[in-house]
Specification:
InterPro entries: 4-PPantetheinyl_Trfase_dom_sf. This is Phosphopantetheinyl transferase. The chain is α+β, with helices and mostly antiparallel strands. It is built from four helices and 13 strands. The chain has one domain: Ribosomal Protein L22, Chain A (Alpha-Beta Complex). The strands form three sheets. It has a six-stranded mixed sheet with strand order 6-10-9-13-8-7. Strands 4-5-1-11-12 form a five-stranded mixed sheet, covered by helices on one side. A hairpin with a 2-residue loop joins strand 9 and strand 10. Helix 3 packs antiparallel against helix 4. The radius of gyration is 17 Å and the shape is globular.
């Protein structure tokens, strides 16, 4: 079963909310203008991909789990993860397993935090060998965030995850079986995580006037032509 990753480079001042329940639109009114637009853009993108893939005309009821992770209330509906970077909204969705998505703007994050603070010695060594260490550090940060979002972890989450970029392997205490695909496209780096594995990742571009356009399909046994593409697969649990 495919995992679907869709992005929307938002240019509209106000999104078309006709697929959203009125309760969602009303609940966003107490947010600041920036937060409200970002919240609604994410929900609109989620609603449109749900309609496109499953024919559900209105966004199903979304709840917030104790971890802070949004989820459909019905266990029969697919798992999803939302992410934002500047004016770009993204959604990752799959009817099998759990998913986690992160988007970051290249070089923007480094002005706010030092991504290397949460990296292991192995990761830092790999970063130091890359032609653009800041860019590489941010991509690993993005990969980590996608895994932590999938696992529903926050402050203590980084301690449960280790990456080996050179071998493309990862070990997660919280999610022992997982796979991550990541790339850098233009000014944005993205990372898609799925448990137990990503068999096929279908990537989409969304435009309100044109709907969804497939941009590429990535499989677990196929390497991308992109020089920034990275793929991580779980190591067996440590004994």
């Amino acid at each position: 079963m495919a995992c679907h990753f869709a992005r929307w480079a938002v240019t509209e001042a106000e999104p078309d909310t006709h697929r959203l329940p009125k309760s969602i639109v009303m609940s966003a009114r107490h947010l600041s203008d920036k937060q409200r637009r970002r919240f609604l853009n994410g929900r609109v993108l989620l609603a449109e991909i749900i309609f496109y893939l499953y024919g559900i005309a209105e966004l199903p009821h979304v709840i917030t789990l104790p971890s802070g992770r949004p989820s459909f209330e019905s266990p029969d509906l697919p798992d999803f993860s939302l992410a934002y970077a500047g004016s770009t909204a993204g959604v990752l969705i799959s009817s099998e397993g759990k998913v986690g998505l992160d988007l970051e703007i290249i070089h923007a994050r480094s002005a706010l935090v030092n991504p290397q603070q949460q990296l292991s010695a192995v990761e830092k060594t790999w970063i130091a060998m890359q032609s653009d260490p800041v860019e590489s550090s941010l991509q690993l940060w993005c990969i980590r965030q996608s895994m932590l979002k999938m696992s529903g972890l926050n402050e203590q989450g980084p301690l449960t995850l280790s990456l080996n970029p050179a071998s493309g392997r990862l070990r997660s205490i919280a999610t022992p079986e997982a796979q991550v695909m990541s790339d850098i496209e233009g000014s944005i780096t993205w990372a898609c995580a799925q448990s137990p594995s990503i068999i096929r990742l279908q990537c989409w571009r969304y435009e309100p006037e044109n709907g969804f356009t497939r941009t590429q399909t990535l499989s677990s046994d196929q390497q991308s032509d992109s020089p920034h593409f990275m793929k991580f697969t779980s190591l067996p649990p440590a004994k």
